[in-house]
Amino acid sequence: MATEAQAANEDSGGTFDLSRLGIVFLVLLVGVTAYFLWWASGYTEGHFPIVLVLATIFGVFMAFNIGGNDVANSFGTSVGAGTLTIRQALAIAAIFEVSGAIIAGGSVTDTIRDGIVDLSRMAVEPADFIYIMMSALIAAALWLMFASNRGWPVSTTHSIVGAIVGSSITLGVLSSGSDTAFSLVQWGKVGQIVISWVLSPALGGIIAYFLFREIKKHVLAYNDAAEEKLEAIRRQKREHARRHKEAFERLSEIQQISYTHTMARDAHIMADRDFEAEDLESDYFRKLRQFERQRKALHPHRAIESLIPPIAAVGAMVIAGMLLSKGLGNLDLDLSLLQDGLILAMVGAAVWLAVYVFARSLKDRELGRATFLLFSWMQVFTAAGFAFSHGSNDIANAIGPFAAILDVLRTGTVGQSAPVPTIAMITFGVALIVGLWFIGKNVIQTVGHNLTTIHPASGFSAELSASAVVLFASILGLPVSSTHILIGAVLGIGLVNNYTNWDLMKPIAFAWVVTLPVAAVLSALGFVVLRSVL
User: Which ranges form a coiled coil (predicted)?
Assistant: First the structure.
């Protein structure tokens, strides 16, 4: 795990050469994409090769920008807290995002993301359907790239939904007139997206505020008070040693020799833990014994040992619940409510015991460092779980429209769902990670540093709160955005710390509002161009 200084160095441009790793990523992305194109030409039986190449470029570009915005947003708190360096975040993202996409991304995806457009109300030629999806991919990708360059974390789901709406309405206007075109859109679902602009950050902020406030009050504040008392005892010990040295120097040589032997005997006695205070002969070691009793009476690690393990257990259960409901939702595990509950209970119990043992092993560590280590490890696990869930769900924002294009090229017909080839998941997963590396740093800087100050305890609180809201919103069917939730959670942390950069939040909130219409306009223009050129 990273130190805060390392994270700061890397976020500010780093002290190491990025070009070699960047070249490796570019070669990897080009190689994987080229292999996919070779495979896809056989999969689609050579139909419309130019369309296949363009669609692949657009799809990979979309996944690249999801990595630079959505994935960067997910890891911003971990990097900002100093828990992970950018390279470490990249490694975790590479493993868990891609694994989530491949293992639990699903073998079939809806062709129209979130069912927001009903194209069954008019006759849609397969070619026009392909243009709708292609224009949606490139429009959403361009908007995400612009937002990432500005450091604005925006919703990739809203981007692709807005883009599909824009290109679909454009087809409707060109084919059947404006009345029919606007009737294609499920405006109720658009209204849910509007609600999510407020609901998502509000829920994330409220949960994070109360969670971190309690952690700060009962763990961090307790540790600060204990550390102050420990420092007072250390000062008394130093003063005691100084006075003892001065008194020793005033003794005669014979007295010094005698007292030195006494000190040696006491030192030997104290090395054996099974001794009584009455066994000590010297005032020096008797006083040290008193200081040690005072230190133990403080119970400085009480909060670490008694409160952090149950917090970690609850966090693990939330992450496990999110993985079962969303991360592994596409695998059709068919677990009963009782089975889900038992799995969560086992996860919680195992994590409780593991963190308790780890906390006990840190007794000899400085209190602040021990707290940093515990919350850092906890934050790594929440980030990894969030990444797996993200990879299994939000990759659909790129793979859904692209899989629909592949299916039309292969079958010549438009279906409600489309198979997702594993090689496509791998290709888009690689594009996610490459995008995180090349264009994700501005979003990481925004989430991890610029909105508020983040450290492992607050970063863990933000990630756990976001995961909890995603889990319960999924269960209740509430329209929420994981990106907006996490930003709201970061703002909630800022409220507890009395530092929130509201000036930066204004353009971010504006970007959330304009994401849908901007993506729609760009997609409409793209549809017109593609339809006239191809």
Answer: 223-250
Whether 421 is covered by a domain: the verdict is: yes
Distance CA 343, CA 323 (A): 11
Q: Which domain holds residue 396?
A: 19-198+391-452+499-533
Mean pLDDT over 143-164 rounds to: 92
Mean pLDDT of the chain: 84
Residue 4 is predicted with a pLDDT of 41
| Cα 458 from Cα 467, distance rounded (Å) | 14
Mean pLDDT of 227-250: 84
**Type of residue found at 204:** G
CA dist 457 and 199 (Å) reads 25
* Single pTM value for the model: 0.84
Q: Given the structure tokens 């937002």, which residue do they identify?
A: 147
* Dihedral pair phi/psi, residue 280, rounded to 5°: -80, 140
Tokens representing 374 are: 């515990």
Residue ending a domain, choose from 247, 265, 298: 298
Which of these three, 268, 298, 328, is where a domain ends? Answer: 298
Please tell me the distance from the alpha carbon of residue 133 to that of residue 115, in angstroms, as a whole number. 14
Residue 317 lies in a domain: no
| Length of the chain counted residue by residue | 534
Closest by alpha carbon to 439, among 33, 109, 12, 144? 144
Is the domain of 168 the same as that of 256? no
Cβ neighbours for 524, distance < 8 A, ≥ 6 positions apart: 135, 166, 167, 169, 170
Read off φ and ψ for residue 111, nearest 5 degrees: -75, -35
Does residue 403 share a domain with residue 268? no
| pLDDT above 70: percentage of residues in the chain | 90
| Same-domain status, 395 and 504 | yes
Are 272 and 153 part of one and the same domain?
no
Distance CA 255, CA 333 (A): 80
* Best CA proximity match to 153, nearest among 398, 469, 474, 491: 491
Q: Specify if 488 maps to a domain.
A: no
Q: Is 513 found in the same domain as 432?
A: yes
Report H helices in 184-220. Answer: 187-215
Sign of CA dihedral 368, 371, 373, 376: negative
User: Is the same domain home to 131 and 252?
Assistant: no
Total domains present in the chain: 2
**Other CB atoms closer than 10 Å to residue 377's CB: what's the count?**
17
